[in-house]
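Hi R.,

Quick one: here's the Dihydroorotase sequence you asked about.
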Amino acid sequence: MDSLTITQPDDWHLHLRDGDVLADVVHWSAARFGRAIIMPNLVPPVTTTEAAVAYRERTLAARPAGSGFEPLMTLYLTDNTPAAEIERAAASGVVQAVKLYPAGATTNSDSGVTDLGRCHDALEAIAEHDLTLCIHGEVTAPGVDIFDREAAFLDERLGPLLDAHPRLRVVLEHLTTRRAVEFVRAGPERLGATITPQHLLMNRNDLLAGGIRPHHYCLPVLKRERDREALLEAATSGHPRFFLGTDSAPHERGQKETACGCAGIFTAPLALELYAEAFDAVGALARLEGFASHHGADFYGLPRNRDTLTLRRAPRRLPDALPYGRGWIVPLRAGAEVAWQLAGDPASP
Ligand SMILES: NC(=O)N[C@@H](CC(=O)O)C(=O)O
Ligand SMILES: [Zn+2]
Ligand SMILES: [Zn+2]
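And here's the predicted structure, written out as tokens:
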């Protein structure tokens, strides 16, 4: 198959940042995806409906002219989020989900949750108002090995959370382990999961063997080859509770190429193409449409997109860096090739 036409996909986990750089990144996603769940870990975090509404306006204004790209907003859950704020968010009609960052787990998560018990009323309100809880699933106890933080979260936090809130709809974000795949498969219908392109295509050797590669560093960190294989099997299985979430997470080059670099991989300029590579590698291109365009919308109870998008098998070389505010950003595959491209996309770098 040298060309693939699918229902226009959506990105169920995306970081766009804010300010000057918004317009530098949003067009990449808008060229590929109909909608995206926009993460709230700005500085300061998007903890109120008012802030989410204003961020949505800035995102709409930063889209390319004529784009129908629809940002679905999220609220950043804290220990002190009142149930009334959840109610306001649901009533606004623009907030789709609430995001749980365990405090300290990842980029800009300092205001995140320290004790889920303190969020009981807010979590009940999320379920009651039919919002979704999206979770960065890692424990943050300093003694827990970084490669074990996701697995620990499943048993110690996610299981009890699902039991305590029997109507809560949850998306476990950016799965990285075989254990997480098994947990989601065994979980209830109201538990969904996103998988990034980097976790389908790379393992921890790509981060650490033969030299440290800061542009392959994200959280949860890349795991073993057997984990990658389990993720790829899940994504290509046709199972409706696994769906696309790129977690494209831009950081300026200097913030990555430094003694203590930020976590986050920038994939927006080639995200769908990377998924096509991953699916193609196991002969599963026919399953890409379900994963990328159907399962997420169905899980969120939203209509599937009506437009279509065509990918062509034709290698394209990525530039070494792309403009990002007054600086530069290094996308995944910088200076190297990706095997697919969007048909008729003049903006492909
Ligand atoms: N994935 C990452 O490594 N980084 C994300 C945060 C997140 O999704 O955990 C970011 O905002 O930079
Ligand atoms: Zn995360
Ligand atoms: Zn993320």
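The chain has one domain: 3-342.

Cheers,
M.
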